[in-house]
Design brief:
Strand content of chain A: 15-25%
Largest sheet of chain B: 10 strands, mixed
Number of helices of chain A: 11
Order of helices and strands of chain A: EHHEHHHEHEHEEHEHEHHEEE
Structural class of chain A: alpha/beta
Order of helices and strands of chain B: EHHHEHHEHEHEHEHEHEHHEE
Number of strands of chain A: 11
Strand order of the largest sheet of chain B: 3-2-4-5-1-6-10-9-7-8
CATH class of the largest domain in chain B: Alpha Beta
Radius of gyration of chain A: 19 Å
CATH topology of the largest domain in chain B: Peroxisomal Thiolase, Chain A, domain 1
Largest interface: A-B, 59 and 67 residues
Shape of chain A: globular
Radius of gyration of chain B: 20 Å
Number of helices of chain B: 12
Shape of chain B: globular
CATH architecture of the largest domain in chain B: 3-Layer(aba) Sandwich
Largest sheet of chain A: 11 strands, mixed
Helix content of chain A: 25-40%
Helix content of chain B: 25-40%
Structural class of chain B: alpha/beta
Number of domains of chain B: 2
Oligomer: heterodimer
Chain lengths: 351, 405
C-alpha cells in the first residue's frame, strides 16, 4: 500500500498541466490516437532535446511534470515500464540495416535501448538511486508498481517515480494490423464503441506517478495493490483470481465501486473483459475509457490517471462511457487490463 | 528482513559451453569462445569477432524436442530454454508442485533476430514478410515462451536495463522471496547476437577487432557474445525443509545509476562504486573478506577505467583479486550478469579464481592488476559480480559460500 502523490501525463487527450480533468473529450480521426505533446523546451534543454526522439522527450517531460505536480525534486527510485521502447529509433536502424548495413549514426541505436527513458530521467535529475525498466507487454507498468510497492514496504524508498510509456508509428501500425486484431483503417475515436468496424483502436501515451510511503496535501489516492495474472486457464479462473486479489487485501468484491474496463473495441477481447468483471464484481459500476487513449501495452497508466483523479475529485468525467448505473460512492476503483486476453492485470486505487 | 535467499540450481549456455560442466572446463583450461562470425550474413564477417553459441537454432530445437515449432521460437527464447531448463532440473523444480514459483527474465533486443529478417521484405512491400518473423519482436515474448516451456505461471515479468538487465532480474526475484510473495524464482537473462546489436555497437566504435582485452592498456573495445543463464532462487527455509543442495547464498545486491551520460561511464565511477557499496552493505561482509570480484570489464577504454577507479576507491589498499571473464564469453549483454552469476557460483563451489584471459599490459592509470592465471584452492568465500550498462544502469550482486546460520 502506498499513496499517489503526483501525476504527469501526456496522452491523446487534454491532460497537460492546467487542462482540468477531461473537460471535453478530444476527437481524433487519424490512423491512431496520437499524443498531444507539450512544448518540450519547458521541460528539456532545447540543445539536448534536438537529438532526442519523440518517445524520449515525452518520457522526460511526463516525469518532470509529475515531479512538479508532487512538489518533489529528487525521487528515491526511477522505474519505467514500456512494451516496445522507442519504436521510431528501432525502425530507423532496421531501415539502415537493409541498406547494406550502412549504419553510421549511433543516436537511434542508443535511444532504441529500452532503458533510455529511465536513464535520461536519471541523468536529467542527477539521480544516482535505484533505476530500472520493465518490458513485459501489459505487465510492464504493473511490474513497476509491484517493484515500487516492494521498495516502499521495506523502506528502501520513500518516493518512487514510476510510469508507463509507449508510442505508435504508422509503420508499426501497418505491421500489427496484419495480425487482424486492430481496426483496419481510421475511425473517429469517440465512435469506438458504435462504429461496427472490427478490431482494437491503437493509441499511445506516457504517464508517470510519484508513489509514496506518506500521505501529503498532494495525495490523489491510495495505491492499494497490484496483481498480474499470467495465463489463467479460463474466464472463471480469472474472475476467481480477481476476487481473491480483493480478499488478499482485506476487501470483498462488493467493496469495488467502479471498474475501469479493459475493453478496447475488439469484440473477442471485450466479451471476455465483460464476463470476468460481471462474474467477479456483479455490483460494481463499469466504465469504458479506451476511446480516449487507444490500446497500447502501458495503457493502464492512463487508467491510473483517471482513477486517481476520480477518487480525489469524487467526480466522473462525462467523457467516460458507462456500461451500467453510476456508483453510489467512490471509495475503491479497480483497473482491469489484459494482453490479448491471455494475461490479465488488476490495479486497485482507493480513497 | 526475514528470509535469506539461496541458490538451488543454475543453468548456462554460452560460447564456451552448453552447460555448467562445459563452461567450467573452458574456464579452467583457458579456452575462449571468441571467434569468427558464422551464424548470419553481415558485411562484418571476417572483420569483427563474436562469441557465438556453437549450436544452430535447429540443433537447439532438436535438443529440446521442439522440432517443427521453429516459427514460434526466436533464438533468444531457445537459448533461454536451454539455460533455464538446466537450472530447474538441478533444483528439482517440476510442474504441479505446490510452491509459488516466478519466472523473471531479461534481455536487450527481444526477438530482433527475426525482426531484422522480416523488415527488408516489409519495406519493399508492406504486405510482405511472414508475420511469424515479427510477432515475437517484443522483449516479453521469450520470457513467455520459456515460462511456457517450464510450466511456471505464478508470476512473470521481463527487465531490460541494457548490460545489467539480468542482475536486476535476480534482484527482483530475491526481493519478492524476502517479501513472501513467492517461494522460489527462476531468474536470469537471455540474448542472441543480432546484426542490429553488432552494427549498433560498431557505430559507437567500441568493438575490438582483435577480440576484447579487458583491463589491458591496449584494449580497444568489447566483443559481443550471446547466451543465457538462469538461477533458481529459493527462500532458505523452503530449500532446507526439502533437503536441497544449496549452491550458494545471494548475500547482497545493489542497483545505482551513474547519472552521467547515456553511453559513457563517469570518470570517477560513481554509479559503479555505489552499486558495489550497496551490495556489500546489505551482505554485512567486511570488504576485505571479499575473495574475488568478477568485474564487468568489457574491454572498452571507458568502462575499465571507470570500474577500476571505483574498485580502487572502494577497497583502497585491500583490493581483492579481480578479473573479467568476458574474454571467454564475450559480452552477452542482457544475459551477461546471469552468466557471470553462474561463473561466480562456479568459483565458489570449485574454490578457484578464473583468469582475465588476453591481459598483457597493465593500465597506466590504475595500480591494480587483474588475475592473469588460474588460481586453485583460492579460499573463495564471497564473490562480488559487477554488471554496468548503458544509461548508467549499474548493478552488483554478492554471492557467498553457503553456511547454515
Amino acid at each position: 500500500m502506498a499513496y499517489i502523490n503526483g501525476i504527469g501525463i501526456i496522452s491523446p487527450q487534454n491532460t497537460l498541466p492546467g487542462s482540468g480533468f477531461l473537460v471535453t473529450p478530444v476527437e481524433h480521426k487519424g490512423e491512431f490516437l496520437k499524443c498531444i505533446e507539450p512544448v518540450y523546451k519547458s521541460y528539456i534543454d532545447p540543445i539536448a532535446s534536438r537529438r532526442m526522439s519523440r518517445l524520449i522527450k515525452m518520457g522526460i517531460s511526463a516525469a518532470k511534470i509529475c515531479l512538479l505536480d508532487a512538489g518533489l525534486e529528487m525521487p528515491d527510485a526511477i522505474i519505467t515500464g514500456t512494451g516496445l521502447g522507442s519504436v521510431e529509433d528501432t525502425e530507423k536502424i532496421l531501415g539502415e540495416l537493409t541498406r547494406e548495413e550502412r549504419f553510421l549514426n549511433p543516436t537511434p541505436f542508443i535511444q532504441s535501448t529500452y532503458n533510455t527513458i529511465s536513464s535520461q530521467i536519471a541523468i536529467n535529475l542527477r539521480c544516482h538511486q535505484y533505476n530500472s525498466t520493465y518490458v513485459h507487454r501489459c505487465f510492464s507498468l504493473e511490474s513497476c508498481l509491484t517493484d515500487a510497492l516492494l521498495q516502499i514496504a521495506d523502506c528502501t524508498a520513500g518516493n518512487v517515480l514510476t510510469g508507463g510509456i509507449d508510442e505508435m508509428t504508422l509503420n508499426h501500425l501497418t505491421i500489427i494490423r496484419r495480425l487482424g486484431l486492430w481496426k483496419p483503417g481510421p475511425i473517429r475515436n469517440l465512435d469506438l464503441w458504435t462504429s461496427g468496424m472490427p478490431g482494437a483502436l491503437a493509441g499511445e501515451g506516457a504517464a508517470y506517478f510519484i508513489i509514496s510511503s506518506e500521505r501529503t496535501l498532494k495525495t490523489y489516492a491510495q495505491l492499494t495493490a497490484v496483481e498480474t495474472l499470467y495465463k489463467p486457464g479460463s474466464t472463471s479462473d480469472a474472475a476467481a483470481a480477481a476476487a481473491h486479489f480483493l480478499s488478499g487485501n482485506g476487501l470483498s468484491p462488493g467493496d469495488v465501486d467502479l471498474v475501469l474496463m479493459g475493453n478496447d473495441g475488439l469484440a473477442e477481447h471485450d466479451m471476455v473483459c465483460n464476463e470476468i468483471i460481471a462474474a467477479a464484481f456483479p455490483q460494481a459500476s463499469r466504465l469504458l475509457y479506451k476511446h480516449l487513449c487507444g490500446e497500447y501495452h502501458t495503457v493502464s497508466g492512463f487508467a491510473m490517471f483517471l482513477a486517481a483523479n476520480i477518487i480525489q475529485k469524487q467526480q466522473i468525467p462525462h467523457a467516460l462511457i458507462p456500461l451500467s448505473e453510476p456508483p453510489g460512492k467512490l471509495d475503491h476503483i479497480l483497473i482491469h487490463n489484459h494482453f490479448r486476453n491471455t494475461d490479465h492485470s488488476f490495479i486497485l486505487i482507493s480513497r | 528482513m526475514g528470509n535469506r535467499v539461496v541458490i538451488t540450481g543454475y543453468g548456462i549456455i554460452s560460447s564456451i559451453g552448453i552447460n555448467a560442466a562445459e563452461v567450467l572446463q573452458s574456464l579452467t583450461e583457458g579456452i575462449s569462445g571468441i571467434g569468427g562470425i558464422t551464424r548470419f550474413k553481415t558485411i562484418h564477417k571476417g572483420k569483427l569477432p563474436l562469441a557465438e553459441v556453437k549450436k544452430s537454432d535447429e540443433e537447439l530445437l532438436e535438443l529440446f524436442g521442439l522440432t517443427g515449432k521453429k516459427k514460434n521460437y526466436t533464438r533468444t527464447s531457445l537459448l533461454g530454454i536451454a539455460a533455464a531448463s538446466q537450472a530447474v532440473l538441478m533444483a528439482g523444480i517440476k510442474p504441479g508442485q505446490k510452491h509459488r514459483t516466478g519466472f523473471i527474465s531479461a534481455n536487450t533486443v527481444g526477438g530482433m533476430d527475426r525482426t531484422e529478417d522480416f523488415y527488408p521484405l516489409f519495406l519493399e512491400n508492406p504486405s510482405k514478410g511472414k508475420l511469424s518473423g515479427v510477432i515475437n519482436h517484443d522483449c516479453g515474448d521469450s520470457t513467455d515462451k520459456i515460462a511456457g516451456f517450464l510450466e511456471i505461471d505464478d508470476f512473470i515479468t521481463t527487465i531490460s536495463t541494457a548490460c545489467s538487465s539480468s542482475a536486476n532480474a535476480i534482484m527482483l526475484g530475491a526481493e519478492m522471496i524476502k517479501a513472501g510473495m513467492l517461494d522460489r524464482v527462476v531468474a536470469g537473462g537471455t540474448d542472441a547476437v543480432t546484426r542490429f546489436t553488432l552494427n549498433g555497437f560498431n557505430t559507437l566504435m567500441i568493438l575490438d577487432k582483435e577480440g576484447c582485452r579487458p583491463f589491458d592498456e591496449n584494449r580497444a573495445g568489447l566483443t559481443i557474445g550471446e547466451g543465457s543463464a538462469f538461477l533458481v532462487l529459493e527462500a532458505e527455509e523452503t530449500a532446507l525443509k526439502e533437503g536441497k543442495t544449496i549452491a550458494g547464498l545471494l548475500s547482497g545486491y545493489g542497483n545505482a545509476n551513474d547519472a552521467y551520460h547515456q553511453t559513457a561511464s563517469s570518470p570517477d565511477g560513481i554509479g559503479a562504486g555505489l552499486a558495489m557499496a550497496k551490495a556489500i552493505e546489505m551482505s554485512g561482509v567486511v570488504p576485505g573478506n571479499i575473495s574475488y570480484i568478477n568485474a564487468h570489464g568489457t574491454g572498452t577504454q571507458n568502462n575499465d577505467l571507470s570500474e577500476g577507479i571505483a574498485i580502487q576507491r572502494l577497497f583502497g589498499d585491500n583490493v581483492p583479486p579481480f578479473s573479467s571473464t568476458k574474454p571467454y564469453t564475450g559480452h552477452t549483454l542482457g544475459a551477461a550478469a546471469a552468466i557471470e552469476a553462474v561463473i561466480s557460483l562456479l568459483s565458489i563451489s570449485h574454490n578457484c579464481i578464473f583468469p582475465n584471459l588476453r591481459w598483457i599490459t597493465p593500465m597506466k592509470e590504475l595500480f591494480i592488476r587483474p588475475v592473469a592465471c588460474l588460481q586453485r584452492d583460492a579460499g573463495v568465500e564471497h564473490v562480488l559480480s559487477n554488471s554496468f550498462g548503458f544509461g548508467g544502469n549499474n548493478s552488483s550482486l554478492l554471492f557467498s559460500k553457503y553456511k547454515p546460520l
